[in-house]
Amino acid sequence: xxKEEFNVFCQSLPHTTHVVQWGGADxxxxxxxxxxxxxxxxxxxxxxxxxxxxxxxxxxxxxGLRPAPYLASRGMKWIQHYAKPGLSDADLKLYLKESYxxxxxxxTKKKQSELGxxxx
Length: 120
Fold this sequence. Notes:
Layout: H1 3-12, E1 16-21, E2 25-30, E3 33-41, E4 44-50, H2 53-59, E5 65-67, E6 78-81, H3 89-105, H4 109-115
Antiparallel strand pairs: 1-2, 2-3, 3-4, 4-6, 5-6
């Protein structure tokens, strides 16, 4: 996945906002909370996303994936896709959607209601 494809995909998710911060990283948020980050790790694009505890344990062992620098050192369950082989584009999109869902569930009930999220 290219950085442009990452940005197009994240933009396609409902109620997302985009900012460029932290030295030029593309940061995607839902309800003001970060769910995905794209920066550059050497020659390859690096994509960072929040995971469940189980997914974090599985993914950190895969080639091209690692606990996200800075976030992992603070005990947060974020993974960075930084090199090949990493995840396929389809799998990366699934994890980005799951990150979006996990972060949206952490929003206040009021914010979730305002955005029409998790109303099932």
